[in-house]
Amino acid sequence: DVVVTVTTSQEPVLRGEWLSAGAFVCAVGANDPAARELDDAVLERATFVCTDSRAQALVEAGDLIGRVSDWAAVYELQDVVAGALRGRSDESEITLFKSNGLAAWDLAAAARVVELL
């Protein structure tokens, strides 16, 4: 299963109990410390958590702020994409990507599209 949340909700809209083994959660909303898309059970069940930027998540990721006890265990997507870090070691693991978006990445992708035109 792939589950994507994109909301500005102040209350969780995704419950960890709803996730099946092997689910991948991509949480794109809740980019405010007071917002939440994910309940605590999603974080408890996720065996691998990554974000686009740990530093940015520390100030923006309402789903993680105050709920993550070890920020060193919140990895950065660039390390997974570059192959420096394996995101999942077993097909039954639940993985979570908490995206806050990075303007630099958006600009790089747009520049590449323009270059290809």
Secondary structure elements and pairings:
Elements: E1 2-5, E2 24-27, H1 40-45, E3 46-51, H2 54-60, E4 74-76, H3 77-81, E5 94-98, H4 103-116
Parallel strand pairs: 1-2, 2-5, 3-4, 3-5
Give the tags.
five-stranded parallel β-sheet
Task: Outline the structure in words.
This protein is α/β, with parallel strands linked by helices. It contains 4 helices and 5 strands, in the order ββαβαβαβα. The protein has helices at 40-45, 54-60, 77-81, 103-116; strands spanning 2-5, 24-27, 46-51, 74-76, 94-98. Strands 1-2-5-3-4 form a 5-stranded parallel sheet. It starts with a strand and ends with a helix.
Summarize the structure.
The chain is an alpha/beta fold and 117 residues long. It contains four helices and five strands; from the N terminus they run E-E-H-E-H-E-H-E-H. Strand 3, helix 2 and strand 4 form a beta-alpha-beta unit.
Structural class: alpha/beta
Provide the residue-averaged pLDDT. Answer: 92
Number of helices: 4
Helix share bin = 25-40%
How large is the radius of gyration? 15 Å
N-C termini distance: 35 Å
What is the strand content? 15-25%
Show unreliable segments. none
> What shape does the CA trace take?
globular
| Main beta-sheet strand count, sense and barrel state | 5 strands, parallel
Helix and strand sequence? EEHEHEHEH
Within the largest sheet, what's the order of strands? 1-2-5-3-4
E-strand count: 5
